[in-house]
Amino acid sequence: MLSSLVKDHLNKQAIRKEQQELKRKEAVAAANNLTQALVDHLNVGVAQAYLNQKRLDAEAKQLHHSATNFAKQTQQWVSLVESFNSALKEIGDAENWARSIEKDMRMITSALEYSYKVTQETQ
């Protein structure tokens, strides 16, 4: 009877060990699956961040290129406006010169007219 109790106990203990081993293997497999799922989830986020960074870099290069072109065009416009302003100043100087010549000519004309009248009156 004692030997049958020991055998039953050993059999039950062996069954429990097998069940524990199965449950341990299931727990390890579940932990592996969870870990893999978490890694996959994180990798998707990292991949998306990497793609976003590449897109941002490309857009930053394009923006830099556009800004450089805009700066060149702005410089050309500034140069054009400066030359236009200079031309306007020259026109203003020419107009002022023409006015001063006209004023001098009027003075000469009035002096000649006065002189002609005086000589006419004396004759």
From TrEMBL:
Pfam families for the chain: GCN5L1
InterPro entries per record: BLOC1S1
Top-level taxonomic group: Eukaryota
Transmembrane segments: none
GO biological process: endosomal transport
CC annotations in GO: BLOC-1 complex
Coiled-coil ranges from the UniProt annotation: none
Similarity annotation: Belongs to the BLOC1S1 family.
This protein's name: Biogenesis of lysosome-related organelles complex 1 subunit 1
